[in-house]
Amino acid sequence: MAQSDSPQEVLYEVADHIATVTLNAPERMNTISSAMLDQMSEAFLRAEKDSDVRCVVFTGSGRAFCAGLDLASQMSGPKDALGGLGNIGAGAGEFDLRNAPPVVLHHMDTPTICALNGGAAGYGLDMAFGCDIRIASATAKLNPGFAKRGIVPESGGTWLLPRMIGYAKAAEISFTGKTLTADEAFSLGIVNHVVEPDQLQAFARSMALDIASNAPLAVRAIKRMMRAAETETFEQNIHHVFLQLLPLFKTKDFQEGVAAFMEKRDPHFIGR
Predict the structure, then answer these.
(1) Which residues of the chain have pLDDT under 50?
(2) Is 120 exposed, middle or buried (0-12, 13-18, 19+ CB in 10 A)?
(3) Cβ within 8 Å of residue 11, ≥6 positions away
(4) Residue 116 phi/psi, 5° resolution?
(5) Which of 31, 114, 163, 211 is 20 to 30 A off residue 270, Cα-Cα?
(6) What is the average pLDDT score of the chain?
(7) pTM of the model
């Protein structure tokens, strides 16, 4: 990752085809500063561009995943029509969000797993929603309290949550702003699994390894087609999928997958 004068508030490491992106400001419960916004986007883009990365695990250090925006940091920025918050996700006074973390995360073809090591609120909760899979520590709590702060889920929550659990449940959660326990989030389908705190990272990594063991070009194509299906008709999507399938037939990974099946062995995919 490019070096800068900003402290390293997002850690990035790769091992066994898995990139781990860690919010690294535990002293403030990983609230998001302007520097962290930039570093998150850099980390996600770095993972997306690295052909060796087949899955991303997104987590936090310390006792919280992310308690939302660091409002003290954001309010100290240059003032504009949004009272100083215009620099969130872009330069002050700008509204170009193409490189904002939620947008970068949404457009990634690489599968993403959010390991919710603790509380998630505000912007942090929206970022968790933006991942493909969520695994929560049993002690984690999800706080969708935007309405209690006089704001809206500005980072994708109004688009993501209704698609995950349906409009009525999403409306209830968003309008009341009630904090959810990990078990409540699981019962609603917001998180895929709830595990004991000391098992969270190992569980998330095990799932990431399962994903990384599959043909990466096929997994990325499956994710693209699932995302495309959100705005396509059934007929449009199956035609779109067929067009994605044709180049996969020409890959070495397809040949390896068929050979491994016929030979009753585990495949070894190379991403080509």
Answers:
(1) 1-3, 78-92
(2) buried
(3) 20, 21, 22, 24, 61
(4) -80, 95
(5) 114
(6) 89
(7) 0.87
Q: How many other C-beta atoms can be found within 10 angstroms of the C-beta atom of residue 49?
A: 9
- For residues 56 and 214, what is the distance between their CA atoms, to the nearest angstrom? 14
In the Cβ-directed half-sphere of 184, how many Cα atoms lie within 13 Å?
Answer: 11
- Give the pLDDT confidence score for residue 80 in this predicted structure: 37
The domain locations on the chain are 10-212, 216-262
What is 10-212's CATH number, 3.90.226.10, 3.40.30.10, 3.40.50.920, 3.90.580.10? 3.90.226.10
SS (H, E, C) the chain: CCCCCCCCCEEEEEECCEEEEEECCHHHCCCECHHHHHHHHHHHHHHHHCCCCCEEEEEECCCEEECCECHHHHHCCCCCCCCCCCCCCCCCCCCCCCCCHHHHHHCCCCCEEEEECCEEEHHHHHHHHHCCEEEEECCCEEECCCHHHCCCCCCCHHHHHHHHHCHHHHHHHHHHCCCEEHHHHHHHCCCCEEECHHHHHHHHHHHHHHHHCCCHHHHHHHHHHHHHCCCCCHHHHHHHHHHHHHHHCCCHHHHHHHHHHHCCCCCCCCCC
pLDDT at position 84 is: 37
Residue 115's DSSP bridge partners are 135
Cβ-count burial 142-154 (b if 16+ within 10 Å, e if not): bbbbbeeeeeebb
pLDDT tens digits, one per residue of 145-196:
887 777 777 788 889 999 999 999 999 999 999 999 999 999 999 999 999 9
The token duo for 125 is: 């909760």
**Maximum Cα interatomic distance, the chain, rounded to a whole number of Å:** 65
